[in-house]
Amino acid sequence: MEDVFIEHGRDGDIHVLRIANPPVNTLRTGVRAGLHAGIAACLKEGARAIVLLGSGRMFSAGAEMTEFNKPRQPPSLPEVFDAIETSRVPVIAAIHGSALGGGLELALACHARVASPTASLGLPEVKRGFVPGAGGTQRLPRLIGGEAALRMIVTGEPVAAAEAQRLGFVDAVLDGPLEAAAIAWARENLGRSFTLARRREDRIKGADLAAFDAAAAALLKRTRGQESPKGCAIAVRAALTHPFDDGLAVEREQFQKLVAGEQSHALRHIFFGEREVARIPGMPADTLPLPVKRAVVVGAGTMGGGIAMSFANHGIPVTVLEQSEEALARGLKKCEANWERSLASGKLTQDDYAKRRALLSGTTDWDAVKQADIVIEAVFEDMAVKQEIFAKLDALARPGVVLASNTSTLDIDAIAGATRRPELVVGMHFFSPANVMRLLEIVRGKASSWEAIATAMDVGRRIGKVNVVVGNCDGFVGNRMTGKRGFQLERLLLEGALPQDVDRVMEAYGMAMGPCATGDLGGLDMGAAVRKARGTVAPIADAIVARGRFGQKTGKGWYLYDDKRQRQPDPEVQALIEEMSAQHQVARRRIEDAEILERMLLPMVNEGARILEEGVASRAIDVDVIFANGFGWPAFRGGPMFWADRMGLKAVRDKLAHYAATTNDPNLKPAALIERLAAEGGSFTAIGQKKAA
Q: Which of 64, 125, 147, 227 is catalytic?
């Protein structure tokens, strides 16, 4: 039986076309063909208006990206839009859930748009590395004006139905069951003259191009080297300066150029990867999570408070447990301050703040653990302390309750060994600030059951995290890999680079912060403590800490900081580095940016290969998703393993061997997996796909 992607219904002379391509109604070939034929059928059968909506949970999530690398089959979206725009009766898009990307472009081509109050509408193509390619950059400005459209398209952020109506691209927000309400609205508006978006000129005529260009420059300043926002600005500007069809040609040119580029491939790699990491190799398909209705977080510090906020932000009651009333009050006040900042900036309503605050409670009474469905420990990194806490939690928590540690480096098996339920102990490594960062490393100990892993994953999903299941080792995946670049950072500084040189190169690559600035933010004394515990040294970094330079919290670290925490190079640091070079008899030289980048990234790639060899990560995409969501790696670069694949693993092997020899860094001896893949002409991505299959 042939798949039916469009359902054709009718209410008298009002016809209804429903997109039926679950789960998100992407506009695959069958959907496009069904729409094209459906419109013709409605007209043939005497429809006086056509209501177009999505079945299931949304209108449409847009284009089917899996078709991007295949020959496109007719009809194209523009051909569907032509059928809509030449229809002799109005076609009305009725939007519930989300209308995103090509889904919103479909709605923009209609004669009118109505939406349910909870609908969300946006053009997020910029986040996939290209521009809207079916007229979105030309129709939206004609409906809401150039600058408003620019902001939506360059940021890729959706707007709610009420805001869409205020801006002018939704005609009505309708209460009640949407299909019935949309049919009633269509009937009420029979005989009304609708002006298609492509024919609108009132919002773009006489546009202030200087103001538009200034707005574009301000938006593009935040994009750190990503190409698609520039393409979006060019395409939207064309709507203000070109006839509609000529503007479409500009949009199409930008789309085709960008979608074929490496940045778009990288962004789609991460996009699909975030879905792939939810599938855990080896986990039985019938594994179910344990029910979690209430959480307890042990520790009200920065991490504990952020974790607790994540629960409250997503509607799950949470209790923070602290040793003293003073520490508890301090932690709760910090949570309130974070919410109040969101309230002041307009990101949070007073009602939402009240609901979230009501879900957060605090106590110093350990009996609170008895009421928990999951307990997450978030105290400082000390094994003895954690083992003591877990023994206490084990005695208090109900049987069958998962106990999780937020440790970033410590052995989950050793922590689990302090309990009588090691099968229910897992790592849940959040990233700071935990209420903002999306990544959650879920650490599977040798005794952790699939049920415990499924529970941690379900909780992570419910609080908005991207879960990646990893194995148990020192530093797990992310911290283990970043830890391996420390030797090369020291060598670069000894050989001629300065902190600002290294950070400039990494930030130009797209990192949110370079390694020196990141160290200052987290506290250089923390890094020194980790090195001391591991018996390693970093001569320059240790000398910086010995001078009381701990980073932002002391106003000086690798950099000097003003009262607004703005950094600037410090001559004292430069003098110290040059002194260390002389002590180590290293002649300083100018180091090119390309070498700095390679020497910062290759140690992580090499360690990533070892992590894959050991099975700590199941697939290369797991590593890339971790870095894109937890370590400031720009998604438009695709992650460290994607970067290595693009360089070619033969080149990676040769560069590692070269730098291992010239810098005397044993960590850069090419991993066995790299040696093998280089010899075979293979890639990390391919081996990851084989494992996933």
A: 125
What 8-state DSSP symbol labels residue 93?
E
Query: How many other CB atoms are there within 10 angstroms of residue 336's CB atom?
Result: 17
Of 286, 182, 272, 324, nearest to 466 by C-alpha is 272
Q: Residue 361 and residue 203: Cα distance in Å, rounded?
A: 50
Here the contacts of 563-570 (C-beta below 8 Å, separation 24 or greater) are: 567/517, 567/520, 569/498, 569/499, 569/500
pLDDT of res. 394: 98
Cis peptide leading into residue 75 (ω within 30°) = yes
SS3 260: coil
Give residue 530's pLDDT band: very low, low, confident or very high (50, 70, 90).
confident
**At residue 361, does pLDDT exceed 50?**
yes
DSSP-derived 3-state class of residue 441: strand
Give the residue among 598, 582, 533 at the shortest CA–CA distance from 381. 533
ω into residue 23 within 30 of 0, thus cis?
yes
* Digit-coded pLDDT (tens) for 474-491: 999 999 999 899 999 999
Domains in the chain, please, with CATH? 6-260 (3.90.226.10), 295-475 (3.40.50.720), 497-583 (1.10.1040.50), 601-692 (1.10.1040.50)
pLDDT digits (tens, 9 = 90+) for 380-390: 889 999 999 99
Residue 535, pLDDT score: 84
**Could you count the other beta carbons within 10 Å of the beta carbon of residue 676?**
16
- The residues that bridge with 6 in the sheet, in sequence order, are 19
Q: Strands 98-100 and 14-19: what pairing?
A: unpaired
**Strands, E assignment, 254-336:** 295-298, 318-321
Q: Which residues contact 501 (CB under 8 A, 6 or more apart)?
A: 591, 596
490 given a catalytic annotation: no
3-state SS, residue 687: helix
Token output for 680: 């075979």
Question: Is 105 one of the catalytic residues?
Answer: yes
Evaluate if residue 690 carries a pLDDT over 60. Answer: no
Share of the chain above pLDDT 90, in %: 91
pLDDT tens figures, 177-222:
999 999 999 999 998 999 999 999 999 999 999 999 999 999 999 8
Closest CA to 39 of 69, 17, 13: 17
Closest of 529, 242, 275, 233 to residue 408, by C-alpha: 529
Name the pLDDT band for 122 (thresholds 50, 70, 90): very high
Give the pLDDT confidence of 401-418 residue by residue, as tens digits.
Answer: 999 999 998 999 999 999
| CA–CA gap between residue 452 and residue 390 (Å, rounded) | 16
13 secondary structure, DSSP code: T
Write out the two tokens for 440. 């959650």
* Options 64, 105, 377, 607, the catalytic residue: 105
Task: Report d(CA 518, CA 534) in Å as an integer.
Answer: 21
| In contact, 254 and 131? CB cutoff 8 Å | yes
Biggest distance spanned by C-alpha atoms of the chain: 90
Residue 50, C-beta contacts closer than 8 angstroms, at least 6 positions apart: 14, 15, 16, 17, 39, 42, 87, 89, 90, 91, 92
User: Is pLDDT of 578 > 70?
Assistant: yes
Q: In 3-state terms, what secondary structure has residue 559?
A: coil
Q: Give the Cα separation of 20 and 52 in Å (integer).
A: 11
State the chain's mean pLDDT as an integer: 95
